[in-house]
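Project standup — Tuesday

K.O.: blocked on the structure for the chain from last sprint. Re-posting the sequence here as requested.
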Amino acid sequence: MRQKLLHPGYKQLSYEIREIVWFAEKVKSTGLDICWENIWDPIAKGERIPDWVKEIIAKALENDKVFGYVHSKWLLSTREYIASKNDKIGPEDIIFFNGLWEAINKIYGYLATSARVLGPNPAYSTHSSAEAANSWADHLTYTLDPNNEWNPDVEEIENKVKFNPNIAGILVINPDNPTGAVFKRDVLEKIVDIAQRYDLFLVFDEIYEKMVYDLEERVVLKDIIWDVPGISMKGMSKELPWPGGRCGWIEIYNQDKDEEFKTYMSSVLMSKMLEVCSTSLPQYVLPTIYEDERFTPYVRSRVEKYKRRADIAEEILGGLDEIIFVKPGWAFYMSFVFRMDQMNEDYRAEVSDAGLQKDLDTAIAGKRFDKRFCYSLLASTGICTVPLSWFNSTYEWIRMTLLEDDEDKYRKILETVRDEILKWKK
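H.V.: unblocked you, prediction finished:
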């Protein structure tokens, strides 16, 4: 081409959660069944939308309006409904998107390239890739500590903010993906305090807020925001198994407190207006679903189901000396960190198919330990997990889901993973 076409930040775009699928397909071609533990899709794992939700959606479809455009910010009646549950915002402080993926990309994409958002390590790839690509540089991170229930290192956050004037915001994912942690109130309040003292804005990704096992431990941004400018990210596709609904929104706090932040939020809105609007159907049905007397009991029953699976995971994996296992505090994920002083880094998994063995050796050559373990586990057993060193992480660790509905099968998956870990023991 006569001109270079690639954006300077393209190398920052990576998504191991799905990139491992190409290798899984090779494994599948050898006749081994794949257990997809790499991605959250409850429908693929056998969960179903309840009939009463389907009835609400079907009733909405009788109205021709659901097939048309809505306001760029979203349906006013739905924004009014959401604002009525939150005394810190009004309808004009809410913008809807086609899933939080779009919101994340617009929020980072309309920042100045010199304005950095400090995020967690381990990171969630959608956030870290979008922020890094916009800045043409590696994502800046603070540490989540597995030895402290994955809570953020607040002292590190302040030091990085203090000595890097390009940091304009702090990202918190709470409940956290991929660690499964629910952060403590005092830690979150300290982060808000740092943002206030250093004149920063906050981004809290709270899409999993309704899926916390112990609601008394849940702290959301609106409860601790004070007068700091901030963005809370929400969605309806987690409490309902409806990932294809592509329905997410942001709640904007204190945009009247800072003119620069207000203008920045206006630029995000203008980008949405160019798109016209987000998908209409979820906007129409959200208030009806949320206000139905069956909604809260349904969500809590799902949460209890996932809590039982977390208990099983702790039972099978929690006692291993080879890993740090922190019991998750919410659905739908669990993770564990390898204790590298316990692991044989020279171990080589062997599979019976010669072609697959060659592909495996090629795929893991020169890679970090957790990627070698994940790909070897996949080739040997068909269990597809995610290596998390790729999540802008200094740890060697993996993530799995808690989605498997068949408890016997779920136990077998965990027992197989446990046995594979022990094969790599020194």
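K.O.: great, moving the ticket to review. The mean pLDDT is 91. The chain has two domains: 10-47+296-423, 65-291.
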